[in-house]
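Sequence, please.
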């Protein structure tokens, strides 16, 4: 996820659903000290714990689909990397659409949105709908990584990259 989103070279990173911080920790370890990080999670307890654990990063208790990005980004700025740990396959179709419509326009030119899918579950209706949405995003390209068989269960990563112009 982190390599695919080129986090070590990012200036601004958004993490959706950091939860207990497993992915946050990897981001933290490779993020340049000058970079800005924002994590959005619905769970207040997780947000408080993450803020204590990573005091140099910012965590907000908010739904990804309703956060006011204009309050955080300066005019014309976007995220170089958006890393998602959200359970997309379990979401209703309308919520998948709402979150992607709200978040993907905040990608900087050339920036990447990454999220993982468990192999097999991506063929369920929710997984297929999500993939179709990713394929349909205007001004972006979609690729998938190879399957990581060592993961339990095996998983792969969707990488949506916004065009540079
Ligand atoms: C699968 S867990 C996160 C996994 C994470 N990588 C970890 O290490 O715990 C998904 C997280 O997304 C959060 N979440 C679910 N729906 C959300 C939404 N609409 N906006 C923001 N966070 C959400 C949940 O509160 C939960 O913490």
């Amino acid at each position: 996820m982190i390599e695919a989103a080129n986090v070590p070279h990012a200036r601004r990173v958004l993490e959706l659903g950091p939860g207990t911080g497993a992915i946050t920790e990897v981001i933290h370890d490779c993020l340049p000290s000058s970079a800005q990080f924002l994590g959005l999670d619905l769970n207040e307890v997780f947000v408080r714990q993450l803020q204590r654990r990573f005091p140099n990063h910012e965590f907000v208790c908010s739904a990804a689909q309703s956060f006011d990005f204009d309050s955080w980004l300066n005019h014309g700025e976007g995220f170089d990397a958006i890393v998602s740990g959200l359970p997309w396959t379990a979401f209703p179709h309308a919520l998948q659409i709402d979150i992607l419509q709200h978040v993907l326009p905040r990608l900087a030119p050339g920036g990447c949105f990454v999220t993982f899918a468990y192999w097999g579950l991506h063929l369920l209706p929710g997984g297929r709908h999500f993939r179709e949405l990713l394929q349909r995003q205007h001004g972006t390209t979609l690729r998938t990584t190879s399957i990581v068989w060592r993961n339990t269960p095996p998983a792969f990563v969707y990488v949506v990259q916004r065009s540079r112009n």
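The chain is about 25% helix and 30% strand.
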